[in-house]
């Protein structure tokens, strides 16, 4: 184990926070051709012609043409921290530990605002369908060019729930300033963006040529309910509200012209180190004998996912022209917890990075990235990165399970035969 390097936010002389994130450098490169082993500059008129040939189709249509070997012109994603590529840290809460090392160390070699050591499921999805990794909309709204947003965007925000903050406040949970970007709020941001980019005649074409990832939603909803409820039955009673809200969001996208949507279920909550720590039981019968996960929390996940699939079945009947794909995150993750060695994992229920002293290496008082937290030597041997979120290694396995059809209904290949991982 390594000691996590604590890097406080830098402040300038006026005392205002300076972002630790630097925009990716766009390095101007001279174009050369090789002739007889030597290099010479291409004629600038030829370079100009090449650039025009590449860009003209985009400007004529108002929207990028489909990439070669890509089924979709764009990918738009909604959700919480399992999908957020940087909105929460870079636009809402810059002092979050997620904005400090060791986050991002595996793939990006720096923190990007993703709640992981590397890529998320949405990143593997984008790569598989031949699209760029999604820029976080809130974080780059004022800096990214319009053409960037025409290829996709991430509207997911950490700590978001399907339900809005008003819903939880009515139930008695007052301190919810960080749940303002519910599914409905994220969808409104998307509509505002697209209407600013795409003229009305081309709007539905844009929607029909794009892929939408709606979720996952539910993990935060149920964590809030767990802290409110007197017993688990009260939490179960919230499932219809959560799943119907997700269904309404999907209806809104279909009404706007969406034709291909991936809708994930929730992960097995009973296998998350943070909840295993917070709801620790002295009774052996409360745990699954094979995995060590908490039964009642996995039952909550199962009930949510079954109800969500019923909602999706109804939507498919109403909209047979739309491909609505259920992504079984629960099934893909459960396969890992049942057979961790098969996938190369050493400790499936222990966080790679955290400040806990118990078996799960999780403490709500010492987060990954905080002073005093420890980091494992090899994140690829761990399922959980920080006690809540997946490592890149686990995210890749979940993504493969969905994209290769084992944990998707219907198969993604039925809507996109050219994807590859």
From TrEMBL:
Which positions, given as ranges, span the membrane? Answer: 46-66
List the InterPro entries hit by this protein, alphabetically. GDSL, SGNH_hydro_sf, SGNH_plant_lipase-like
Record bears the keyword Acyltransferase: no
Task: Spell out the molecular function terms from Gene Ontology.
Answer: hydrolase activity, acting on ester bonds
Which superkingdom heads the taxonomic lineage of this protein's source?
Eukaryota
Task: Give start-end ranges for the coiled-coil region(s).
Answer: none
Q: Does the keyword Membrane apply?
A: yes
Kindly state which keywords UniProt assigns to this record, in alphabetical order. Answer: Glycoprotein, Hydrolase, Membrane, Signal, Transmembrane, Transmembrane helix
Q: Which family does it belong to?
A: Belongs to the 'GDSL' lipolytic enzyme family.
Q: What is this protein called?
A: GDSL esterase/lipase At1g28570-like
